[in-house]
Design brief:
Arc Repressor Mutant, subunit A; DNA-binding; transcription cis-regulatory region binding
Length: about 200
């Protein structure tokens, strides 16, 4: 078995168990069993449960950031297209990984340093591009407000899914249709705020 296959199997197993049980309740032996490998290989590749956990969390965050980063810092993509692409990419990603926002929010609360470098680099690249595009169109909104508006409108339904469903606002089997429909609405709502 080659190194990458074993490492990826361990990461995938750890991701599943950390998401289901949390860090404290997940044992390295259980991760090794889930990955169909042995504890010695887990320790060889990652050294400790903490290092493996950090790797899993960083990978999840990279996936989340990867869905919007390239769109935000591309100067050739107009603002409306940025809004549409970010919303579409995030919605698709979150439909496929519904646990991701809660997982990342929990980790941001507990482990801010884990994400600091990734988020700072993304902001330093993307913010000036969006600020320039807003300024060129005489839009009186900061890049920060625009990004937060897009992300909050897209991510909140996934974070609040249990509340939305238990309150009867949306039926469980209709949730994917609900968030998919919101993609178009978010584009309308944000576009309306940036038009003069």
């Amino acid at each position: 078995m080659n190194k990458n296959t074993t490492e990826q199997k361990i990461i995938k197993a750890a991701d599943k168990l950390f998401t289901q049980k949390g860090y404290a309740a997940t044992k390295t032996r259980a991760i090794a069993e889930e990955a169909e490998t042995n504890l010695a290989l887990l320790n060889y590749y990652f050294g400790s449960k903490e290092k493996l956990y950090k790797k899993v969390v960083q990978e999840k965050f990279r996936i989340l950031l990867g869905a919007i980063g390239p769109v935000m810092w591309d100067e050739t993509i107009p603002l409306e297209d940025k809004i549409r692409l970010i919303t579409e990419n995030y919605t698709k990603l979150l439909i496929e990984n519904e646990e991701l926002p809660i997982f990342i929010l929990n980790e941001l609360t507990i482990n801010k340093e884990l994400f600091k470098e990734i988020t700072e680099n993304a902001r330093l690249i993307a913010q000036p591009v969006i600020e320039k595009q807003l300024k060129e169109r005489n839009i009186e909104m900061t890049a920060s407000h625009m990004i937060v508006n897009i992300l909050s409108l897209t991510i909140f339904p996934f974070v609040a899914k249990p509340l939305i469903i238990s309150s009867g606002l949306v039926k469980k089997e209709e949730f994917v249709d609900f968030v998919s429909e919101r993609k178009e609405k978010i584009l309308e709502w944000i576009t309306a705020t940036i038009k003069k």
